[in-house]
Amino acid sequence: MAEDFHKPTQFSGSKFESFQGGDDPASISRVAHETAQALLARVRSDPDPRIVERLIAYTDEHGIDTVAELWSRATPRSLPGALWRMYLIRLLIRQDPDGTAFLYQRGVDVTVSIDPVVAGASIPTGPAEIIAVADEILRGAFSGDFAVALDRAAAFCRVTGAGCTSVADDLDATEPARSSELTTRALRFSTTAQDFAACARLWRHHSLD
After folding, report:
1. Structure pTM?
2. Is the bond leading into 8 cis (omega within 30 degrees of zero)?
3. Residue ranges of region Disordered (predicted)?
């Protein structure tokens, strides 16, 4: 990979789908799929811990721009689409670990499913724990069972979405604008969770490309 990249770019929680690519969708799609497949195959064939850690922290040093240019326009239920969303979720967590930890912990408190167990964050979940689980999920994509990493990402999104909905209900009467924002975010997390779960199923059937 080239050495010259933009500095890390700050994102708001609403920018899940904000990048635009070039003029040739077929070419963009081909490059996205080929680079995602090549990267994952290369690392998983020889999962050198140093390389894995560099990939996990890649956007911390270089920003999200290069990853976005490669993968952000890929369909959600594809290999590049899944990797893009994993990086983006990690970035959103690291930009607001306190707020994300609060929403995730609220989700844990109101969720009756096994999603908190699947996501794997330490309970109670503070900023350090929420950053750690983001890194663990992405690390698992490169050096563990990719389907399990996708399942963990899906569970994380469902729990955090549940937390968003719960806090939105609390604020509905007193802060309607903030409540509406959190409701929208909850829907976005829910949609992303569905995409991660679908990708996990496709991976297990050797159909995620």
Report:
1. 0.86
2. no
3. 1-24
